[in-house]
Amino acid sequence: MYKLYFAPGTCSMAVHVALNECNQPVTLEKIDIMSGQGRSPEYLKINPRGQVPVLVDGDQTIREGAAILIHILEKHQSPLLPQSGKERDTALEWLMFCNATLHPAYARCFFLKKNGGDDALMGTAVAMINKLWEEVEQRLEKSAYLCGDQITMADILMTVIANWSSNIPKPVQIGPRTKKLLQTVIARPAYKKALDTEQVEYKAAA
Ligand SMILES: N[C@@H](CCC(=O)N[C@@H](CS)C(=O)NCC(=O)O)C(=O)O
What ligand 1 atom has the least distance to the C-alpha of 99? Predict the structure, then answer.
């Protein structure tokens, strides 16, 4: 059985949802990153960066969310990651957009909040987030999901990240088409189950 080191509602939740989507049972190991458990000597042995997610699959330990998601979806041949061609390239592009562009944009704001960044700097950082949501909103003019008419993992990771918006000290603006997508994603049984298990309230779709 898989083991997932997670913190409720964080990026590790996308891995939790992916496992649920693939009907894979998982042993969940909660890491209290807010209280510094991620920096404990025990956990640093598991992930020297002190972060979640970490997935243990048999004798393999995988760190980095995008690598973990690709591992799971390929192993279980999930349609959340098309297997070849242009569809796969597009799905990976948007998965990486979420993992390597949208996620760090939020992380920048959390860093400023925690370390007393000034108001102007925070304003600039939040404006960068809002610019990304504008781009997403424009993309959804053409299709219901980020990569067309079918949901992919990118939509799920984006939905997880969107829910961090209420922890940002300035307004984050998410457009109506994007909110509709978020509502569709959180209605999926796999997502609902993860929210229930992690005891997370979803606020970004309203
Ligand atoms: N690049 C890493 C980023 C992981 C990450 O930032 N995880 C956050 C939760 S969303 C975390 O563990 N933060 C605690 C910390 O950095 O101390 C990945 O994609 O796995």
Answer: 19
Give pLDDT tens digits for 120-140: 999 999 999 999 999 999 999
Measured by CA distance, the residue closest to atom 9 of ligand 1 is: 10
Q: Burial level of 122, CB count in 10 A (0-12/13-18/19+)?
A: middle
Examine the domain organization and report whether 18 and 107 are in the same domain: no
State which of 6, 11, 110, 167 you would mutate to test the pocket of ligand 1, scoring each by most atoms of that ligand within 8 A of its C-beta.
11
Domain end, chosen from 20, 55, 75, is at 75
DSSP calls for 23-47: T--EEEEE--GGGTGGGSHHHHHH-
> Would you mind telling me the total number of residues written for the chain in this entry?
206
**Cα 156 to middle of ligand 1, angstroms:** 17
* Residue 43 shares a structural domain with residue 99: no
The string of pLDDT tens digits covering residues 137-174 is 999 999 999 999 999 999 999 999 999 999 999 999 99
Measured from CB, residues less than 6 Å from any atom of ligand 1 are 7, 10-11, 33, 38, 50-53, 64-66, 99, 107
Domain enclosing residue 63, as ranges: 2-75
Q: Give backbone dihedrals phi and psi of 199, rounded to 5 degrees, phi first.
A: 55, 55
CATH number reported for the structural domain that contains residue 38 in this entry = 3.40.30.10
Regarding whether 92 and 61 lie in a shared domain, the answer is no
Quick check: pTM over 0.90? yes
Count of domains forming the chain: 2
Residue 151 lies in a domain: yes
